[in-house]
Each structure stands twice: as C-alpha cells, then as structure tokens.
C-alpha cells in the first residue's frame, strides 16, 4: 500500500517551510492543504482535530496518524524515509550539537523575533546578537555541525526569507553584519528543495 | 581510559534533576559540581565558559566536551550509554509521540509555570488545564507513550516536586484534580533514580 501523506499548513509559515523542505529533500509525494490563515485568524476543523493540544500548523498526517511541531515532524520524516542520507550525524556528540543549534533556532531566532520590529535599540541589538552567535559558530564550515546539509540547517534556513523585510523595515541589515550567515544561506538556496520553498 | 563525567548543576533545578535521573538510570558515575545559585544569582566562571550561549545549568562535561540543555543532555546520555534499555521507542511514530510530550513538558508545564503563582484565577486555570491534557493522554497506560519508563517520563516527572508547594501556596491541588498523574508520579517514585533525586 502506498503511503498517504498530507501536510496541513499555511504558505507563509516558516515552520511549515521546514517540513516542505524536509519532504522535498526526501522526495516524498504529499497532498498540501492550506488549513489555517494567520492574517484572518482562521483554523480549520481538521487542524483542530489533528492537533488538539497546540492547534497549530504544520501537521503531517501519515497514513491517518498526525505528527505535530515542525522539528518533531522533520525528525519523523528523517526516520521514516531513511533510505536517503540522514540529517543527524551518527556520533552522539555531533548529534547533541545538531540538536543544540536546532533548539537555538526555536528559542532565540524565532523566540526573540518580535524584537526585530521593536522601537527599542537594545532589543534589536539583542536580536542581532543571536545572529552573531550563529556567525561565530558557523565559521568556515559549509553547514552547521557537519560538512553536509542537516537538521540544524533545515531548522535555521527558513528565517532567510526575513532578511529582506528586516533590511527594509527593521532599520538594520543582517547581510552587512553577518556575511558568513548570508553565504551559508545562499549555499542552502542552491538546493532545489529550499529555492522552491522560500519566498523569493 | 575511563570516562570523565562532570555535571554542572544547582540542587533545586528541575532541569538538573532530569540529568541526575538519567545518569542514575544508566549507572554512570560522575562528579557533581554546584556551579550556580538561583537565589544569590551566582554563575561560576566554569559554567559561563562551558555554556557561553545560554549561560545556564545543567551542563554535562563528558571527557572535556560540554553538552547543554537538559533534554539534549538526556538524549546524549541515552545514546552514549546505550547498553541499558533506550528511552526512545524504536518505532518512528512512537518516537515522535515521545518527543511531542517531552516538548510539551518544556513549553507548557515549565513554560507556563509562573502562572501557578498568579493572582488571576484564569491563569491558574490555564496552567491546570495543561495537567488535564496530560491526565487524558496518560489514561490507563503505566507510562507516557509506551509501557516502559522513557524519555517523556524523565522530562515530566521532575515537576512532581512542585505538587506540595502548589497545594500549600497555589490555592489548588493537582492531587485532587489529576489522580491519574499522581498515580503515575508515585509509580515513577518507586524507581531509586527518581526517589533519590526529587525533593521529599
């Protein structure tokens, strides 16, 4: 029996983009369903049924069973469709590092993202500081943690879509402050999975 | 060469307790170092050096290399000392469920925990609602997700230490509202690793 894979999503969601990139990387065919609209504050009955705890997209429904929370979905995809190269290294210490930077993405990059639009200089400065931490961590490595594209890259790359609007509306330019991150993001954009998913 | 394992911790930390339970479950010998004091707002130089990003305990230093963030440390311990039974099931869907409830522990139980002490009834009610979600999820299972003690149990059980103070100071009793959770916590407390770690 063929797998039935359905993604409940909203096109502009950076968390949904992580899952779309993961599915594209693994070559998984799926049905895309727009089941929420942030602007109109709409959530479908199917979404509320499939994610009753958080009531949030993205939700991956695989053969009828829902998986919620973008990073958990990405790990699930990696473990189910494991014929393609895994996104976590085999070494436990490197795996911990990959999880650390993935967690950093949620807590610091997305978690503090409202402060980009803050009118307070020190809040914007604190947000930029998070990118400088990433800049230092990446150094001269091609990707986060290991030499190959992986879990932390998927978790982090979807914020690249914000860079233009931050420059336009946020009164500072990440491009100018963090050239290493920008070079990494452009490297990621060479992957079809990412170029097709992130907004232009 | 024997493993050198050092835990930077603070005795009252529920996050530190997760790591102590994990190390005890695996029978890992380690050096315990109190490197922070929440009350006095003290953090040692060693802690700042080993966790420069978050500057928080717990940190596990294994043969000189630091691992940070309690849930990442617990997974690391599981993967390094893998001769004892693993805390994550082998089935990808069950693994995703274990990660979901572990993530719920951080986002909802610890994340919303300040509202326990709120003077607003609706905030306390929302906090209690999180426990009712857990109560429904556990149902008649002995442990979260699978029949054996695992990742989500380690992540969740350290809040059991709060029940007494919530009852004393928080104006409501989780025991009375969530008997299934209390029975599960008492089941966990039969494990030496947990009975020795949680406050009496």
UniProtKB/TrEMBL annotation, chains A, B:
Superkingdom in the source lineage: Eukaryota
GO biological process per UniProt: glutathione metabolic process
Keywords, comma-separated and alphabetical: Transferase
Gene3D superfamilies (UniProt xref): 1.20.1050.10, Glutaredoxin (3.40.30.10)
Catalytic activity: RX + glutathione = an S-substituted glutathione + a halide anion + H(+)
The EC number(s) this enzyme carries: 2.5.1.18
Domain GST C-terminal: 91-200
Pfam families: GST_C, GST_N
GO cellular component, one term: cytoplasm
Residue ranges of domain GST N-terminal in the record: 3-85
InterPro entries xref list: Glutathione-S-Trfase_C-like, Glutathione-S-Trfase_C_sf, Glutathione_S-Trfase, Glutathione_S-Trfase_N, GST_C, GST_C_Tau, Omega/Tau-like, Thioredoxin-like_sf
Sample GO molecular function, one term: glutathione transferase activity
UniProt xrefs under PROSITE patterns: GST_CTER, GST_NTER
CDD domains with a match to the protein in the record: GST_C_Tau (cd03185), GST_N_Tau (cd03058)
Family statement: Belongs to the GST superfamily.
PANTHER family in alphabetical order: GLUTATHIONE S-TRANSFERASE U26 (PTHR11260:SF773), GLUTATHIONE S-TRANSFERASE, GST, SUPERFAMILY, GST DOMAIN CONTAINING (PTHR11260)
UniProt-recorded name of the protein: glutathione transferase
The organism of origin for this protein: Morella rubra
